[in-house]
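> forwarded from #structure-qc
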């Protein structure tokens, strides 16, 4: 079974940028949707951005214009470029792959604080 591993999280000041990566242990070509979710402390896990195999994207209203999702099928990777970060973006970010089933990574923590 394909496994997903996120990286790139860390501490960043408000207004800063981070790029999250999701590396898959196998081909992501068969997954119809690759997505990023986030979960803040004591909050539910919410969709941040999704990208279909056909190239359609969907973003949470709170990140539109600041975050960009992309996928690299050749390298079995998905990325989330996050710009103009705000304290409310602080959360654990999870990579998700959807096809016949749904796979999750272990998450990477993003902390936006001065």
């Amino acid at each position: 079974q394909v496994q997903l591993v996120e990286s790139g999280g860390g501490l960043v000041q408000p207004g800063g940028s981070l790029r999250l990566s999701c590396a898959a242990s196998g081909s992501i070509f068969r997954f119809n949707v690759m997505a990023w979710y986030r979960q803040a402390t004591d909050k539910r896990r919410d969709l941040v951005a999704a990208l279909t195999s056909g190239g359609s994207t969907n973003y949470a209203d709170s990140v539109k214009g600041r975050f960009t999702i992309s996928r690299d099928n050749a390298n079995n990777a998905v990325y989330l470029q996050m710009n103009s970060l705000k304290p409310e973006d602080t959360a654990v970010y999870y990579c998700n792959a959807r096809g016949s089933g749904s796979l999750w990574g272990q998450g990477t923590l993003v902390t936006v604080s001065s």
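QC bot note: The longest strand covers residues 45-52. The chain has a mean pLDDT of 95.
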